[in-house]
UniProtKB/TrEMBL annotation:
Listed Pfam families: Condensation
Top-level taxon of the source organism: Bacteria
Disordered: annotated span: 167-188
Biological processes annotated in GO: lipid biosynthetic process
Protein name as catalogued: Condensation domain-containing protein
UniProt source species: Dactylosporangium siamense
Biased composition (Polar residues): 167-177
Lineage: Bacteria, Bacillati, Actinomycetota, Actinomycetes, Micromonosporales
Domain Condensation residue range list: 57-325
Molecular function per GO: catalytic activity
């Protein structure tokens, strides 16, 4: 493999300026510092046979010219929060890598891993890395990684829609600098104060831990696994049909019930990730808006259908108050000294309800596979994600074994499955 050709791509766009971080940016910055990773999103994709270096460079130019979040760097000052600096003009490098006599897909994978594993200097680099791989005299693959600091899943979808249409009309919606301005306005501070009252009311009602302390430490410390369950898929579909409740609420309720069963601690408190895209002016902005809210549910002795109704109702408040200043919530958590490390993220696509009813292919092998065990980078104490998977239910689990043993992590997933199956049948 030859040394990369480095193509300089110049760009120019509207919205230049600087100011404090938005709440969504702050939430991601804290995760970046805590987990010691630049939170890269993206991957490798094949390129059409007629792709050219000029075409890929033009796409990269469009991305940075169009979306202010992709031409945002940070200015750090001591221990204070960074300042975001949105450039009006600049340049970025596109790498073009010739695979030589090697498999271009394998080379693309290596470039992806190099980009992923190399720290990003947010003060000097743009939050996007891109390379084109050449094999057999033509471009074959595109490698593109972007930091979660710049966009979330909905922002990524809006970005891809813009790339597809090459829309050049004025952007609509609040960009991150505008968001930060509103958040510091009287209206923003009133909303934040209401969110803090909501959070404090829950935190002061909780015990200090969400799970009993593990009896022994496990090494490596941080584990990630994938749980595949056709039984859970079928049971969730049956509960949705029986109750008329959407599958997101059903799965949240199953997670809450499983936490209660495994921990023996009630009430249960979890942190569901919330897109915040339902707020005015934020539906299709290319930025990061996701924040982890706070949901508390009393579970003990509650029949499942009643728990389903209760969780759905309480989730509305959790979503309403999942838009907050992370620094203020952090200070509150330190004062109250309560651990709320149970995170939950339904990251299925917008067609999740239709997909639930889709014809089932041959199901993937059921069960839990531990994919990685490591001592760095760190992960949250417990994080369960729900992912798109045709004809089955796929849950990704990340855990800190100093907080929750891998055995108990698996018990949470198995409990979600067994509780769903037990409540799938029609009521007499």
């Amino acid at each position: 493999m030859e040394a990369p050709e480095r193509v300089v791509v110049r760009f120019e766009g509207d919205g230049a300026g600087e100011g404090p971080l938005s709440w969504g940016q702050t939430e991601n910055w804290l995760a970046i510092k805590r987990q010691q990773t630049w939170l890269p999103l993206g991957g490798v994709q094949p390129l059409p046979p007629d792709s050219t270096v000029e075409g890929v460079a033009d796409e990269l130019r469009y991305l940075l010219s169009r979306f202010p979040s992709l031409r945002t760097r940070l200015r750090l000052a001591g221990g204070e929060r960074p300042t975001q600096v949105v450039a009006g003009v600049g340049e970025i490098t596109l790498e073009v890598i010739d695979a030589g006599d090697r498999d271009p897909a394998a080379v693309a994978g290596e470039v992806h891993d190099r980009y992923r594993d190399t720290a990003l200097d947010f003060t000097a680099e743009w939050p996007i890395r891109m390379a084109a791989i050449r094999g057999g005299g033509r471009l074959t693959h595109l490698v593109a990684l972007l930091s979660h600091f710049a966009l979330d899943a909905t922002g990524a979808a809006a970005m891809l829609a813009g790339v597809s249409s090459r829309d050049t009309s004025p952007l609509t919606g609040q960009q991150p600098l505008d968001q930060a301005g509103w958040q510091r306005s009287p209206a923003g501070r009133r909303h934040n104060a209401a969110a803090l009252r909501y959070w404090e009311g829950i935190l002061r009602a909780l015990g200090p831990r969400r799970f009993p302390e593990p009896v022994a430490r496990t090494s490596p410390r941080f584990w990630q696994g994938e749980f595949t369950s056709p039984d859970l898929h079928r049971a969730v579909r049956a509960i949705v049909r029986r109750t008329g409740v959407d599958s997101s609420t059903v799965l949240t309720t199953l997670y809450v019930a499983a936490i209660a069963q495994v921990s023996g601690i009630d009430p249960v408190a979890i942190r569901p990730t919330v897109s915040n895209r339902f707020r005015a002016g934020l539906s299709d902005v290319v930025c990061t808006l996701v924040q982890a809210g706070l949901l508390m549910v009393h579970v003990a002795g509650t029949p499942f259908d009643e728990l389903l109704e209760r969780t759905g109702r309480l989730t509305l408040s959790a979503y309403k108050y999942a838009y907050f200043d992370p620094d203020d919530v952090g200070e509150l958590r330190e004062r109250v000294a309560v651990d709320i490390g149970c995170f939950y993220n339904d990251r299925r696509g917008p067609n999740r309800e239709q997909d639930l009813d889709a014809a089932e292919p041959d199901p993937a092998p059921a069960g839990l596979r531990w994919l990685s065990k490591q001592d760095a980078p760190a992960v949250e104490p417990l994080f369960v994600h729900v992912d798109d998977a045709p004809g089955t239910m796929r849950l990704t689990i990340q855990l800190d074994a100093d907080y929750l043993s891998p055995t108990d992590g698996e018990r949470v997933l198995r409990a979600m499955e067994s509780i769903a199956v037990a409540n799938a049948a029609p009521r007499p």
